[in-house]
Amino acid sequence: MLSSKFKKHFTIAIAFRIIFILVICGVIVYLFPKAGTFQYAYQKGSLWRYETLNAPFDFPIYKTDAELSAEREKITREQTPIFDLNTEIKKKQTAKFTEATEKYRNVMTASAIDHIRNKLAEIYTAGVLQIPEELNSTNIKTVKIVHNNIGKDIDFKKVYTLKKAYSVLNQTIDGTNLPASVKEHILSLNINHFIQPNLEFDASKTNLQLTNQLKNISLTQGLVRNGETIISKRELVTPEKIKLLNSLETEYRHNAGSYTTRFRIIGGQIILTLTSLIIFSLYFYYSKKRVFYDNKEFIFLYGAFLATVALGSAGYYQNINMHALPVLFFVLIVNILVGSRSALYLLLGTSLLISYFAPNSFRYLFMQITAGIVAIFSLAQLQRRGQLFLSIFLIFITYVAVYFSFILIQEGDISLSHIFGLLWLFVNCLLLSLAYPVIYIFERIFGFTSEITLMELSNPNHPALRALTKKAPGTFQHSLMVANLAEEAIYRIGGNPLLTRTGALYHDIGKSNEPIFFIENLSGGINPHDDCEFDESARHIINHVSQGVELAKKYNLPETIINFIRTHHGKSKVKYFYNSFRNKYPDRAIDEAAFTYDGPDPVSKECAVVMMADSVEAASRTLKEKTEENITQLVNNIIDGQVQDGRFLNAEITFRDIAYVKQVFIDMLTNIYHSRIAYPKLKKTEQTEEASPDSTTHEPNK
Fold this sequence. Notes:
Layout: H1 4-31, E1 53-54, E2 59-62, H2 65-77, E3 82-85, H3 87-101, H4 110-126, E4 128-129, E5 142-147, E6 150-155, E7 160-161, H5 162-175, H6 180-188, E8 199-201, H7 203-215, E9 220-224, E10 229-231, H8 239-255, H9 259-287, H10 289-293, H11 295-317, H12 329-337, H13 340-354, H14 361-378, H15 386-411, H16 416-420, H17 422-432, H18 435-446, H19 451-457, H20 463-471, H21 473-493, H22 497-506, H23 534-554, H24 559-567, H25 575-584, H26 605-620, H27 628-644, H28 655-672
Helix pairs in contact: 1-9, 1-11, 3-4, 4-5, 9-13, 11-12, 11-13, 12-13, 12-18, 13-14, 14-15, 15-17, 20-21, 21-22, 21-26, 21-28, 22-24, 22-26, 23-24, 23-25, 26-27, 26-28, 27-28
């Protein structure tokens, strides 16, 4: 029966997880668009796979983005500039011309000079302007002249630029019947002095007019009546049909704004999100119970789920291209820190929800799942740092392949705009490379140990391993043997080989404090245990576990590695000294705790395998005859004894796994300790000089 305290703790843990999942569900539903979702999925170039679709109500045909953009561009290009008319300039400049030519006026020239002055007045009446730099005169067709707050559109050809006014006035002077000397005198006055713009460009009014024109662009063109056929079954979805279907979808969203409809939409979104979260949770509950009940890992995984969906929603709310969003960011991190299967479920659950935001949901979903699977399997066994960047490169290649495949299916051709679309995918993968430094942050916050960190720790030049090599070389060699045995066994039964190897290398670092108390470090026949009582000797042996934990913390080793140090003996006894005490003092009461390790017993498969390898490797050194039969018997006796003592009750390991581990140990130890043929000695009568350098070559084992 479970204790009431345990039941209470279990109930609180389950309640916390349910509340946490519901909160995440609420946040995701809040991020979802509250408009209704169109029930038809369609792509340009494909066949309409639904029944014939008729208009359910009257709706306008909305212009496409390309059409609206072209219309805006045309209005901007052909905008009518606004000029304010200054009437004083005409009076001033005509009077100035009259005054300047008065001395040339006589009976013969008066008529011609008046004709020139009238032409100058006519030019000013039409309007003289100077084109500002921000306007392109080649695109101007009309100008608006404002006088007394009344605007009038005038053909641009009817007004005068400074150059045109000068040319016309010069021709007028040449065309008169004035004497040549008078013409020369008038031209010498520099007629440019009499030409000045009387139309002043008003930039603020022009911009305001342009803004209003752009704002008043009609978003629709035409109308589809209720009952009209939009598209028939198995009809090709052409650009024209896409336009009609998009218009129906837009109008459908606009009509789905009532409170009743909104509540129904929210209800459907809650069910959709909960379904995805429940599937995600069921995997961890049944396949990864340890992860599910570990608070830090639980918060990390579900936080990654929420963060991924929130990242995907940014494209909808911030008007960012969906292909530029690195939604595989947390998939990569979870894959490295937790495992590939967890990352796969995260990928599937979040991609299905994020596709809700994507404009081309099927293409987006296909791209993310294929690229995500490539990422997961390319990082299944991380062996070097550059592998992460190779994985990101493979993600980019997968994105590009799927992207162009859909473009060819939907468009039938690849245009320059599609090539530019690759820039968004490149930005996506560039942002994914930030996962490398972020991994270290999550390691520190949540206590994970990435493959990258394990590679650094397994380097023999790590200070802790270097200290062990110098102070306890025999222990270091023992640790190397244990690492080789455990790593091969984990490869066979499934697990994390790099974690297993690293944990095995560090499991005995506590022996560097008192190396002479351990037989593998003894030399010269001096044994300090000869001067100790059995319980004192046991204490020296047992202390290497707690001292190893202290050293591990001193060297800032991660908790996952410290677990190997704590659990590699579990709650077993120091049997040599325990049995020696019982044999010597059969009638004396024995303190069991003095001969028992503090534990705990291993929980993970990796720690359990290191416990087996540690015991088997140490015992194999004591065999006088290391035959296959003796090794097999030794391995079976030791591991079966650990099973009977309950050392693996809490570990994620099966009897089938244990059987495989035994066989791996037997095969490896037999190969290590295989018997060799004794070389025959040369007889004294033989000539030794006839022996060649190759005479020591091994003969085959017999």
